[in-house]
Amino acid sequence: MPFRLGVPELLIVLVIVVLLFGVGRLTKIAGELGGGIRAFRKGVQGDEVNDDEKTEEDESKK
User: Please, where are the H alpha helices in the chain?
Assistant: First the structure.
């Protein structure tokens, strides 16, 4: 039996989640999730410098 969710079912699930967690907690969770995704993307792209490399650069500047 296929698992299909339509708009009414998704709205019911959303209402239940809001009732369980509250709006404030959901915004906090969503913000943390977004920050985690951003950090993951930066890590995959290689934009983030490792702490070891930072300390070596700082020591060489002194």
Answer: 7-21, 23-45, 51-61
Read off the pLDDT of residues 1-13 as tens digits, 9 standing for 90 and up.
567 889 999 999 9
Residue that is written with structure tokens 């993307």 in the block: 41
Structural tokens at position 30: 């969503």
Give residue-wise pLDDT tens across range 2-61. Answer: 678 899 999 999 999 899 988 889 889 899 999 999 999 998 887 545 555 555 555 666
Locus of tokens 């989640």: 17
| Best CA proximity match to 25, nearest among 10, 33, 38 | 33
